[in-house]
């Protein structure tokens, strides 16, 4: 029988017009060996299908649902969720996540065992999307000295280059990482009293890295290999266009570059620009060489060009922005 422990868990789900995916996630939460103490659903949908779904759910599944209407915007909705969450641990989940039955039990046990409160945030192991090999472009960039940290998923180098958590492997000696994925990240309430998702980053695209890497400056972050989950973007998955995503990412790198350049480290800012130029060139070259062997998808090429141009713009703005 599912149980609740002394440590209170609040799940916050920010959703927009994806009632089908949300219903699947709620079934996953109701099937947990360790139930959450509350599930705060922050809904920015234009219709009432999500609200109707929440209102009609039976309390017999053991979930305490809190429904909140909100203006649209991922970071804004997350802040609304924090304001309504009453738990000791706040767990942000995308509405298209699915958790294995023991996931929340493993998560709660990790926070319980951290007696000195050095762990500020954790995430689970996405058994479908993590453990992937590094792309050739990233491996070559490391060999050429463009990346100065270990080539391990979840690391950030001194110039602000994020090594994707898709390349995190569960057989690593250390579970410590430098940032967490927005689809599943859990923080102590005391962390969120000091750090908040940044409202200046208004749309999807790297806001999770910016926020969690800021938390990492004071607290430890971990991947829990035994907290198994799967992120399955649904048919209604709303992603910005290639250029919009690149422009969102520029906000993060602008902040990083401002820190780097204000510290007088022009070499790091130059290396960041070089890395994005190099990986963008490789992405575009791969698309060109793949013509005739597979349908051409302009989205990766647009995203690569957007990242490149956005970071170049950020580096120029950082030199003139106080």
Order of helices and strands: EHEHEHEEHEHEEHHEHHH
End-to-end CA span: 57 Å
| DSSP E strands, number | 9
**Which CATH class of the largest domain applies here?**
Alpha Beta
Uncertain segments: 318-322
Largest beta sheet, briefly? 9 strands, mixed
Offer a concise description of the structure:
This protein is α/β, with parallel strands linked by helices and 322 residues long. The protein has helices spanning 19-30, 49-56, 74-84, 103-113, 136-143, 189-194, 207-216, 242-262, 266-289, 298-320; strands at 9-15, 38-43, 65-69, 89-94, 97-99, 119-126, 176-177, 184-188, 220-231.
Structural summary, described in words:
By secondary structure, the chain is an alpha/beta fold. The protein has 2 domains: 9-126 and 175-231, Alpha-Beta Complex (Spore Coat Polysaccharide Biosynthesis Protein SpsA, Chain A); 242-320. The chain has 10 helices and 9 strands. Strands 1, 2, 3, 4, 5, 6, 7, 8 and 9 form a 9-stranded mixed beta sheet that branches. Helix 2 (49-56) links the parallel strand 2 and strand 3 (65-69). It is globular and about 60 Å long. Mean pLDDT is 80; it is low at 318-322.
Layout: helices, strands, pairs:
Layout: E1 9-15, H1 19-30, E2 38-43, H2 49-56, E3 65-69, H3 74-84, E4 89-94, E5 97-99, H4 103-113, E6 119-126, H5 136-143, E7 176-177, E8 184-188, H6 189-194, H7 207-216, E9 220-231, H8 242-262, H9 266-289, H10 298-320
Helix pairs in contact: 8-10, 9-10
Key attributes of the depicted protein:
single chain; 322 residues; alpha/beta; Spore Coat Polysaccharide Biosynthesis Protein SpsA, Chain A; disordered C terminus
């Amino acid at each position: 029988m599912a149980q609740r422990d002394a440590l209170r868990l609040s799940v916050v789900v920010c959703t927009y017009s994806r009632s089908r995916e949300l219903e699947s996630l709620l079934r996953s939460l109701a099937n947990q060996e360790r139930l959450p103490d509350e599930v705060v659903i922050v809904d920015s949908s234009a219709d009432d299908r999500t609200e109707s779904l929440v209102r009609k759910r039976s309390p017999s599944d053991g979930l305490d649902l809190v429904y909140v209407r909100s203006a649209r915007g991922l970071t804004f909705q997350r802040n609304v969720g924090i304001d309504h969450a009453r738990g000791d641990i706040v767990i942000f989940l995308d509405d298209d996540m699915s958790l294995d039955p023991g996931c929340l039990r493993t998560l709660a046990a990790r926070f319980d065992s951290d007696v000195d409160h050095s762990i500020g945030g954790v995430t689970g192991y996405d058994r479908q999307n993590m453990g992937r090999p590094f792309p050739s472009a990233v491996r070559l960039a490391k060999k050429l000295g463009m990346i100065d940290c270990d080539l391990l998923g979840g690391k950030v180098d001194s110039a602000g280059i994020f090594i994707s958590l898709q390349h995190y492997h569960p057989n690593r000696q250390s579970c410590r990482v430098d940032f967490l994925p927005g689809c599943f990240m859990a923080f102590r309430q005391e962390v969120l009293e000091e750090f908040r998702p940044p409202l200046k980053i208004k749309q999807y695209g790297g806001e999770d890295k910016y926020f969690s890497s800021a938390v990492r400056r004071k607290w430890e972050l971990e991947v829990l290999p035994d907290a198994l989950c799967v992120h399955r973007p649904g048919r209604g998955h709303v992603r910005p266009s290639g250029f919009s995503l690149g422009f969102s990412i520029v906000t993060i790198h602008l902040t990083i570059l401002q820190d780097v350049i204000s510290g007088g480290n022009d070499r790091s800012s130059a290396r960041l620009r070089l890395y994005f130029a190099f990986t963008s060139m490789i992405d575009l070259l791969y698309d060109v060489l793949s013509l005739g062997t597979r349908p051409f998808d302009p989205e990766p090429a647009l995203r690569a060009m957007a990242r490149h141009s956005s970071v170049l713009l950020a580096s120029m703005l950082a030199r003139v922005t106080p």
